[in-house]
Design brief:
two-stranded antiparallel sheet, 5 helices, elongated
Length: about 190
């Protein structure tokens, strides 16, 4: 739903900017402008001196303009953050075997995966996030490893146990995963 709203808003804003920019360019190149248009000709300015000074004597004008522009900037930044943020998967489609399907909450599967990954030998902390589509989920896993753990062995345990259990229990054909491993910081050991 958010993707659809995002695409519609982007399309409307893009179309408005293209029409506005194209019409300003056409008038600037010498095309006749309609009577309701803000420019009269190619040498007209956007705001004349009288239009610009019209509200100068009112104390509320410039704070209102600055507040409106600040709100627009904040909304644009919020929208940009929402677009760039990686989306969590809300639900996973589980094949029940009877031609129907059941929906499993994505957070529930993330919680189970996180708990099982955290219990693996040598893992100090685990964090799992599901992304992708509900029929083909993908996992992003972050593991914090104990100081003397072999990363290859920890990765093998994760794929053979936690990810395999999640894939099998949800009835998924595959559960691709991006795994990031990091070691626990520890002080230097003294040899005596």
């Amino acid at each position: 739903m958010l993707r659809m709203v995002n695409r519609v808003l982007m399309g409307i804003i893009g179309l408005a900017l293209v029409v506005l920019g194209g019409s300003v360019l056409a008038v600037g190149l010498g095309a006749d402008s309609p009577s309701w248009w803000i420019h009269d000709g190619r040498h007209d300015v956007l705001l004349s001196d009288t239009e610009r000074a019209r509200w100068r004597d009112h104390g509320w004008w410039w704070p209102a303009v600055i507040a409106a522009l600040a709100v627009l900037v904040l909304l644009a930044l919020w929208w940009l953050a929402a677009v760039l943020r990686r989306r969590r998967l809300a639900e996973v489609l589980v094949d029940t075997g009877d031609g129907e399907g059941a929906l499993l909450r994505g957070r529930a599967l993330e919680g189970v995966l996180t708990a099982e990954a955290a219990q693996l030998d040598g893992v100090a902390q685990a964090q799992v996030q599901l992304t992708g589509r509900r029929g083909t989920p993908e996992a992003r896993v972050r593991l914090l490893l104990e100081p003397h753990v072999d990363p290859g062995h920890a990765l093998h345990l994760l794929t053979a146990e936690a990810l395999a259990h999640a894939r099998d229990s949800a009835g998924l054909a595959a559960l691709p995963a991006e795994v990031r491993l990091r070691g626990v910081k520890h002080g230097a050991e003294r040899v005596g």
